[in-house]
Amino acid sequence: MATITRSDLANRLREQHGLTMSDAYKLIDIIFDEIRESLINGEEVKFAGFGSFKILTKPQRMGRNPKTGVPAVITARKVASFKASTEFRQRVAKK
Residues 53, 8, 13, 50: is their CA dihedral positive or negative? Predict the structure, then answer.
């Protein structure tokens, strides 16, 4: 299973849309920066046919150290979450 990197995305933009590598990297950075800033500001980011990103607040809870089994408190925190759209899930299931 391959991993798609930032460089792979830039190459695809260059090949399919004639962008220079510099412009392709700038475009990718702008898109990711906008997503990141929107999530930091508490906004949900939705892409039709792909899915949505949002920040979830996880409450404090009890857990345990997996090595020792000793109970430990897991502090409250915020995590990024992605939920795939129905269309995206259906397309992945067909493959």
Answer: negative
